[in-house]
Structures are given as C-alpha cells and as structure tokens.
Amino acid sequence: MMSNVPKVFIKTFGCRTNLFDSQVMLSHLEDFEVTQNEDEADIVIVNSCTVTNGADSGVRGYVNAANKKGTKVYLTGCGAHTKGESLFEGEKVFGVFGQSEKAKINELLKEKERFYQIGDLEFIDETVVEEFVGKSRAFIKIQEGCNFRCSYCIIPFVRGDARSHDEEKILEQITRLAANGFGEFILTGTNVGSYGQGVKRTMAGLLKRISLIKGVRRIRIGSMEPIQVTDEFKELLGEPWLEKHLHIAIQHSSQEMLRIMNRRNNVDTDIKLLNELYEKGFAVGTDYIVGHPGETEAVWKDAMSNLSQMPLTHVHAFTYSKRDGTPSADLKGEINGLVSKARMLELTNLIDANNLTFRKEHKVPLEVLIESEKEGIYTGLDQFFNRVEIECQYDLSGNWITLEDYEVREDINYAKL
Question: Tens of pLDDT along 266-288?
Fold first, then answer.
C-alpha cells in the first residue's frame, strides 16, 4: 500500500462487545492503512467504555494524550453517548459517532468538516466479519442491548434495549471464519443470554446450529444471567464442543444487596445452579461488585457465608465505582475504599483457592488453543478457561494442543514439550 495513505489505529476500551465492534470497523476500512502501532498512526479511533466514571476518565486521558501528539482523534463506543458532546464541543475530537454508524467508518474518516453523528439505539449489525486482526479466537456478537435495569449500570441507556442479530447472519459469519481457520468462537453481546428474546429463538437452538458448522471446535459464551440457564440449555452441557466453563453473572451473594442493586437473581437458586454446573464438570465464573452502597459489615458477612457455598472458580470482580446517571450514584451508605479493598482481597483469595482445588480435582487432558508466545513460552486457554503455559522449542502459535502430562501450579497449569 502507498505510504501516503493515512494509517489508522483503533484503541479499544472495555468489553468483548467493543472488541467485536472494532473488528467491524477494521473490516470496513477500505481506503486507509490499518496499523497496530498507535505511535505511527495518523488517525486514532477511540472505541470507548463508559461503565464507570473512572472509565470515562480513562478515555478522556487517552484522548488528551493523543491530541498532544497531534493525532486526529475520533470517538465512538458507549462513551460517545455520555462524554461525546463535551469532548466534541471542547474540540478534543474531530468526530463523534455512535455504534450504529460504525459500518460507515470508511466514509466518516473522509469527512472534511467536524461531525457529531450519535446515531440510534435500535440498530442491529449487518456486517459479516471474515477475519480477526491479531486474534486466534473469533468474537461473534449475537445480540445488542439489555432489558435489565440494575441500579449501578448505565449500559442499557447507551446500548438500548435487547435485540437479537439475525440467526442466519450469525451462522454465515461463523461459517466464513471457520473456513478461514478459526476453531474457537466466543458468543458476545451486551446481555448475551437474552439472545432470541422476542423473535422466538433460543441460545440453545443457536448453539446446536453453530455446532454443526464444519471447523467449529469450541464454543464459548461470554456471560449469562442465572435465569437464562434454561432446561433446554442444560441439555447441552454434555456436548464436547461446549467449553467446560460458564460465566454466570450473579453480581453479589447477599439477597439484601441484590435487592438494593435491583437484580433479578436469588441467592438460594444461584447456589443450587452453580453447584449443579460444577457437579457436571464445569468451571464456573461470575461478575461480582464489592463495596456498593449499602454493603454493611453484616451484609458482607452474609455474602461471604453464601459465597462459601458457591463453587466459583473464576471471578471478574469490581470495586464499586460511581456511574453518574444511575440510581446507585444517589444512594447513601457509601463504603470506605480501604474496606472495599480488604473485601476484594477476601473474595479473590477464596475464588483463587477454589480454582486451584478444581484444577487438582479435574486432572484431565487439556485442550489448549495457543494465543501468544514470549521467549519460548506459549500461552493459551484450556476448556475450563484456565491459563496454560507451555515451554517448547517448536512454533506452536495458533495451534490446538492436547496436554495429558502437565503440572498444576498455584496460578496456572504448566507443561514442557
């Protein structure tokens, strides 16, 4: 490609949904050169997250730094809806566009005048992504938006209500990616488990159809709410193509806290569900918020007591951070930061111990997809979503490796080939 073609770098903040959206934009950049080195970029597209005030600050800091380098900056993602206007009016970004406009990226970057095109919150992606730049696994967005209204969350207001992507488009995308050598597929979205709602489709039905596509080796589901694990879904738990790890978002293990958070799950049924999955050989992960307003010492003790009955092996834990515009932001009973930090450590220590126990008790052959290499150490994830390091003199990049002889270490599984 000619050297005078502007180079574009996409900076992605936040969740897997944003990772997919960045790939959609990359697939539409026909008249620009894509670079994975931001220092050589003429144009930076900031695909932003706005889940907390801190996320907004991180995006703003990145935009300011890019401005100082003289880079032309554009803003998209969830932050476009919350901070886009102020950044645009302050001339910190050349253009702002919402998620619904990302397929137009090639034309938007040719605009001579500054623009603010926030789009709408009812769009559904039509783009079929055939390649994932720099990835060994493929992220497939199957739905957008969320109908839940958890008290701490701004996302439904910037992503819209739940709506599902066309099933045939999803299958077409996976078919093309599988033909291009991808074997692992991660189903993602704003609220993945709500797939099919209102269009007479189900997650289980979609999974069955994906499993029939030639080349599909492993399917992973980003996250599900407890109430979305249906009897139909449970019938698939023995299928070899379903990753033996499920991420069930409980957010907290105190019933009082769930009430304050305006959650739909119930502690007793959560305990029953998580144990049922564990007994079927699944590693089980969750999202968990520590230090939300109202989390008194009594509430925390109750939460930890309940948590000890939940066989969680993975946790994506957050210390509560205020998000302006949400009901939680106005609640009394804020938790001291040092208290939150101590509770976070207590939580993660428990889950880390559970994970080590799980890996020792499930000493089975591991199916590992190699994702990266550094100084002869290859790293990947096994079917239980545990990190594996393999020391090897041969190039394993992008390969599937079956490990029968490996060492269970405190934080990883390790092998030498």
Answer: 999 999 999 999 999 999 999 99
